């Protein structure tokens, strides 16, 4: 009997150890999770910055998870890390597994990789966010009118720097812009921002700095503090992913103002982050899965989502109502109407 009991304990121990030894992911895959149980299986692949940025990628993930919860999509999340040399092979391993009906990914760095894979794996569907991939029959892409959303951010910043109601504004008409990298998408944000500021007051000066990546928050903070303290900026707009959190921290420490990006970052530093330019990645990702489930996803095409389509906007939460003067709120509402009707047209650099 004693021997039998010992054997049972041994078998139980082996079972526990075996259960704890799951499959090992590839070197470039930082994390993964699955949920749902519907007929559609999907994986998302993130690169360069990945999750935890409280903005762009976190917004995409919120939409993806909502698709899992609300639509019953079976989802898996993979973070590809910052080593660009790994991205093509890591994404191909997901595609070649033939486990997923659709793969979600995005940003300008992934365009050529997805074009190549889509052509070599014609049965694999892709949903691509934040860039254009046209005329490939198994790829649907979404582009956001960041220039239009940034026009609102620029107009808002110009109204702040010329305001006599906000304590943090000095007499100099100076606003700042901190970008992650000097690339076409970031510069489209910048162009819209400049156009919006000039619409309010042609004498407003715009200072620009680039971090050089999407993760170095201390460097973004340093660049932003220089804009506030040396170059007299009253408000700085960050388009720098996770690095941009340093810009928001700098604004709070300096007693100045900032504008968040992609998701509503107002709650991070109430009264300092006055608003955020919303790139509604979450809404658009969820919408894409709805269309896929309904058999209406326009594969082979790109949709451009602007203010009118709900693709972009600015965050108007309770903090916005509390800290932004009514005169500025009213002017922004007027500009939004003119953008939606086409009375104001914003030029894109893309």
UniProtKB/TrEMBL annotation:
Q: Where is the signal peptide?
A: 1-19
Classification via CDD domains: PBP1_BMP-like
Tell me the protein family, please: Belongs to the BMP lipoprotein family.
Please give, as recorded in its UniProt entry, the membrane topology of this protein: Lipid-anchor
Do you know which PANTHER family this protein is assigned to? ABC TRANSPORTER GUANOSINE-BINDING PROTEIN NUPN, TRANSCRIPTIONAL ACTIVATOR PROTEIN MED
Residue ranges occupied by any ABC transporter substrate-binding protein PnrA-like domain in the UniProt entry: 41-341
Q: What is its main location?
A: membrane
Q: State its location(s).
A: Cell membrane
Instruction: List keywords of the entry alphabetically.
Output: Cell membrane, Lipoprotein, Membrane, Signal
One GO cellular component assignment for this chain's record is:
plasma membrane
- State the protein's name: BMP family ABC transporter substrate-binding protein
